[in-house]
Amino acid sequence: MELQEALSVAIEYEHKVRDHYAQCARRTADPKGQRVFATMAREEQGHVEYLQARLEELRSTGVITALELPTVLPAVAWIESAARKAANQGPGPIGQGLPELEYLKQALELEHRTSAFYRDMVSLLDPGHRGLFARFLEIEDGHVAIVQAEIDALAGHGHWFDFMEFNLEGQ
């Protein structure tokens, strides 16, 4: 796959997952759930904008500059640690029947597909372009961890993990 096609396909993946999170934020009644989904939608929108800028740069100059790709989300290890601490807070009402649980399962599948695409790009593209997609893979793997933590929290003790309540400043 050529770089321009890879960027275009990446934008499609990011649109799908962004749209899913935005739709879930509108459908979710719980304020914490709304905040989680809205944050994830904003994160994915940032990815869309970044990729579109790189694609436009490639089309206009023939090269891309791998600018820093920021994320508002913490690292995977931090997410896993915080999720374990949240799980130890004790049981609450079990959230098995919540529609949000199904939304999260769908999000997890989308995130896995997106991560798989980036993993392929890291292994298949010209070495000079792999770094761009490696950073996306790192971030998307963090998204998988967050969504899984939310699923575990809702299914296990009926409360949102709500990573936004944790202090992200020390990351």
Your description of this structure?
With 171 residues, the chain is mainly alpha-helical. It has a single domain (3-159), classed as Up-down Bundle (Ferritin). The protein has five helices and no strands. α1 (3-27) runs antiparallel to α4 and α3 packs parallel to α5. The radius of gyration is 17 Å and the shape is elongated. 34% of the residues are buried.
Structure summarized in a few sentences:
By secondary structure, the protein is mainly α. It has helices at residues 3-27, 31-61, 76-87, 99-124, 130-157. The protein contains five helices and no strands.
Index terms:
171 residues; mainly alpha; Ferritin; 5 helices; 0% strand; disordered C terminus
Helix count from the secondary structure assignment = 5
Order of helices and strands: HHHHH
Would you identify the regions where 5 or more consecutive residues have pLDDT less than 50? 91-96, 164-171
Query: Strand pairing plus helix content: what structural class?
Result: mainly alpha
Strand content: under 5%
3D shape: elongated
SSE layout and pairings?
Elements: H1 3-27, H2 31-61, H3 76-87, H4 99-124, H5 130-157
Helix pairs in contact: 1-2, 1-4, 3-5, 4-5
